[in-house]
Structures are given as C-alpha cells and as structure tokens.
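Weekly structure sync - notes
Attendees: PM, LS, DV (DV joined late)
Agenda: review two folding runs queued last week.

Item 1: First target. Sequence and structure tokens pasted below for the record.
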Amino acid sequence: MFLIKDSKSPYYQLVYFRNGKRTKISTRTSNRIEAEKFKSTFKPHRKPLPQPRKISVKLSDFENEHKSYIRNTYSENYLKKAVTTSFNRLKYYVSDVPIDSISTKQLDQFISSVYAKSKYAALLYYKTLKAAFNKALIWEYLEENPFCKIKSPKVPKSFPNYITEAELIMILNSTATQLCKDIFTMAFYTGMRLGELLNMKWDWVDFSSQVITVKNSKSYNTKNKSERIIPANKKVVQILERQAESGEQLKNDYVFNCYAGIKFNEDFISRQFKKAVRAAGVDEKIHFILYVIHLLLL
C-alpha cells in the first residue's frame, strides 16, 4: 500500500491491491500525517468503513475557489461575464446554500425560469455551472453532478450577422472620435477581438513585415492562451503609422489608450460601437464580437 496525490483531488489517495486488482480509496485529508494514520489503520481485506462526508461548502465559497482555480486558464472578461454572472443568478434563485443541498429539481427549475426570459442566457448558465459542478465532483464536494440529469437548453440556430465594407463606412461616419474609428477599422480588417485590440502593445507590431503578432503577457492572456500572427493590410498599417507619428509609441506601450498609460475600458468601446451602429441605421443585432468575424484583407 502507498499514498498518492494527484490533480483530480485535493486529498491523499491510498493505493492497494485486492485480488490482484489495483484499487484506491480517498483518505479524506490533505494532511500527510493524517493520511499516514489512515494508511496504518486501513485493512484492505475488510469492507471499507463509510467515510465521513466533507463539511458542506457554500455556493459563494465554492464560486471563489473555482474562479481562483480557472483564473490562469480563462480571461478576466470570461470570469466576469460568464462565471460570476452564472453564480450570482443561481445564488439569487436558491440563496447561498451548501452546494450538496441543491437538488436536481431546483436546478432544472432555475434553468427553465431563465430560459423563459432568455434562451441564450439559459444555455450560458447551464454550460458554465455544469463545468463548475464537474470540478466540485472531482474535488469530492459532491457525489454526483446534478446538471448531468438536466437536458441542455436548446437555442435557435441562426447565421451570424456579417457587415459589408459599405456598412463599415456608414458606422465610421456615425462615430464621433477618430480613435474609435481607428479601433473599429482595425477590428474589421484584422478580425482581432476587442480585448486584443485594447491590450495590443507596440512590440506586437512589425512594420517591416507588416504583421501583428497577438501575444500573451503577465497582464493579458488571449482566449485559450493562443498566440497568432495577423497580416496587416494597407489601411491597418496607415492607422498604426498614424498612432506612432502622434507620439503614442513614446508615451505608452499600448497602441490605443484612453490616457497615457491607461487602457480603454472594453465596455466603453462596445457602447460606442453600439451607439454608432444605431446612428448608422445598421442591423442592431450586430455587436463587436460578430463585427470582427469579417476578415476581408485588401
């Protein structure tokens, strides 16, 4: 018999062999000394005694623990708009109770109530919370994931709203500031996400090769931490050159900034884009994420 500890559980696992078959059992402790005591008293040929359940974890405590665990994998924007929002809505519905006291029926009713108001929100909450509760299962806070018994909400499938270059011009003509015009134009011709544009630094830009390399850094990670190279067409290069000539390259690491050393807020730019879309009379279903799908490189 020997003790192991892996990423699937915070507790030490006791590995032993029964009838030649490798078996393991949780010691229910992350303390090595206590795990050794468990090992010394455990009898592999006897039926294991029922293990005491871990103290129940409240939703808010589990939320904080889960977000801390995934923070290095996902962006702060995802944590804020998906994880935090999903947990807040669930806490509002069932209150801040221990996660092992939430029944499948309660969760099914919760998703159903959200679905009645917004099908897409229901799907987001379902996927986000199901993934979180899977982690609770691995951490042995739960014996089963109640979301696995609930069907995924169905949402209508539709084609994304693309915009044409003519519509881009209409949006730009309805945009008040040159800086916002440049950001919208960059998005249209590069397909860069809003977070990437606002976190873009001058060391991403190679004027000689006319490419932009989207990079990860200590202060910013791209979606899924994937870096990539984007060709810069003539209009993109002109915008970058104009920003460099304005002295931004000397004032600040960021290509676009609100004030020297201060980045633009993503929500602010999104609101400015939506405002311009409405003023231009373009389809209001278009928002910044769908807008950047267009990858026309002239």
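Item 2: Second target, run right after the first with the same settings.
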Amino acid sequence: MKKLLVFGLAVLLVAAFTVPAAAVDSEFGGYWRARAFMQQNFTGESETEAGDLTRVDTRTRLYYTAIFSDDFKFVNKFEFNTTFGDTDGGDIGADGNTFRVKNSYANFNLGSYNFLVGVQPRVFARGLLFDDDFSGIAVTYQGDDMSFPFIWMKAYEGGSGLNDQDVDYYGVNPKFDLSDSLMLNPFLLYINSTDASAWATDNEKVGVYYLGVSVDKKFEGASAWFTGIFSGGEVDSVSLGDTVTVSSSLAALGGEIDLGSAVVSCEFIYASGDDDLTDDEATDFYVPDGNSYYWAEIMGLGIFDNTQSANAPGDAISNLMAANVGASFSTSENLTWDADLWYASLMEDNAAGDSDLGIEIDLKATYKLMEGMNLEVVAAYLMAGKATYDGDDDANPIEIGARLSFSF
C-alpha cells in the first residue's frame, strides 16, 4: 500500500513538471509544525500515572493543486506524522511509513454549480456536527449572496454482497448573506444504514437526522454567533434488543468585543445527556463519527489534542454544560497573550451522582518569529471536580507545551 501511494505521488509530480505550461498551472503550499508537551494527572489522580505523557511530535502537510482553468482544479493534500523516538519514522534511521493522502478531489464549475468529487474536507455547524475529511460528492449552487450545497458522504462501504452494511451521510448546508453583517446557515444531516453493525457494533438499522441553524452577526467593534441543533430518528440497538428513539439537542453561543487594547470573548455550550442508558430513548447528543469541536485545553483537547481529562467529552460534545470567558491582547507587534477561564459540568450525573468536571485556566503566548512562523507556549491547569475523579488520591490535571509552526 505504501509503495502504491508513493508511486501515485510520483506520477502527480512528474505530470506537474512535464505537461505543457499552457495546459496547466501548478500551485504548491503546505503546513508544518513541531510540538513538545507534558500532560500530568489527566486521570484525576497521581498514583497510577496512567494519564501522564511527555512527547515531541511533528506534522507535515504538502499541498499540490493542478489548475487547468478558472473552472477546473485538481486538489491534493498529503500528510506525514512522526512522534520523536517511535518505531515508525521517529527512531534512529528515521525511515517512516507515515505517508497519507489526506485529500484528493476534482473541483470544477458547470454554470452556477460547483462540484467537489473525491476525498475532501467539510464543516457542519462549526464542527459541533461535522469537521473532518470524507469520501463523497458535494454539489453547490452558487448565487450572488448565497450558496446551497448538497453533500453525500460514504461513511462505510460494506463491500460485495453486503450493501445493507453501507453507511451514508446526506446533508444540505446552505449559507445566506442577509447583509454585510448577518449570515444565516440552516443545515440538515441525515445518517442512514440498513445494518450498521460492521461500522458501529451496537447499531443495526440507523436512521438519524440532525436539523439546526447557525447565525453570525457583526456589530461595530463586536460580533456574536449562535448554533442550535436538534437530533431525532431511530436506531436498532444490538445490546438492548430494541429500537431506540433518538431525541437530543445542542446549543452553543458566543461573542467578542474589541476594546482596542484587548479583545474580550465569551462562550456557552449546552449538549443534552441521558439519565438512563438502558431504556429505549437516547437523549444524549451523539454524532457517530465526524464531529470535532475543540474548546478548553485540558477538558476539550485544545491545540495538543492528544487526549482529554477523565470523563470530559473532548471534542465530541455531548452531556455537557460549559461556560467560558477569555481575553486576548498584544504587548508588542509580534507578541500576543491569550487567557481563558472555563467551567464545565455534566448535564446528567454519572453513576456516582457527580456532575462537576471542574474549573480550568488556560494561558497562551504567541510570538511571531518571522513572517509565517509562530511559536506558541501553552500552560493549562484544571481544578478538577468530582465528576473528573472522586477518590482520596485526587490530583489536578496539568498541561504545559509549545508549538512551532509555519505555513506557505
């Protein structure tokens, strides 16, 4: 498989440099970062050291786009990941097997319609619903002040003779610019499978929909946003031996005010939970695959995105109430400081009757080393609540790290 992927990349590069200049233009770009970070007490206790980690890793992304005309592009993104000292490219010798094709898709216009066909990225509802890459097709009608995409995602292919095991996502995600300062984004995502047991082991027949809206509003020196989602439908549960009715909701809102010397921001997140996992109603907000919304550094993955503290939802928002206030200010042309305070709890108590996840303080300094290159230094501390860990040997999670990155 690795040889096939490398051969495919070589063919693309050879084609890019050998076709006549008038036939195709080439656009290159990329992103690189190196991170060093330490995480301690993420289990909520210090005796086992089970959640402790100190690691250095790198990521390289290379972009190549073949531009045939204003209406036809072939987009490719390749990725290489390495952890320092691992046996897959980070050890002595450094011959890794970490090559990935992240995106490869045709992007073309036919009249007022844009087509994306292949492996491509997509965002629904700021990532609260979907923020990932997928294989599929997106067809978008483009108007003067609006876009209206229809998206088909193939989440799982059952294979020959196993069509019932296919899992498909269908979505519409239109955006309307109602004015220079107001954007409206209603959306619908439907997940369907006759037998999803090979993809999600506890599910057979799946028919679940997510209906919602996002609004963005700009004011003079300020902005505000809102996203609301309702989920409904049915899932045949293998473990319960019954059809489960889905009924859940999520709401998130936030905003910021530019005070000149600083920008002050706030955010609130609510996602429903389930007080009885054994009945035939699923009221916890749950997306099977694809959602990713980073929030707090420790409870919500943050920029190091290795893992979250115990019992926090990470970037898959569910059974959560979280509130944040933050500020960002610059002390020089190249140095910016960010500070955030988060409080989070479970919407439904855990088995021990606890809901408090804790209060988290996040601090970040960003220094612009040169044009396009930044160094970020992060320190985060969680004053953990009983829902993180309820025992005599409790200890508060700590995260310290740095990230060097550039793009081109």
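Discussion on item 2: Residues 2-18 form the longest helix (17 residues).
Action: LS to circulate a short write-up before next sync.
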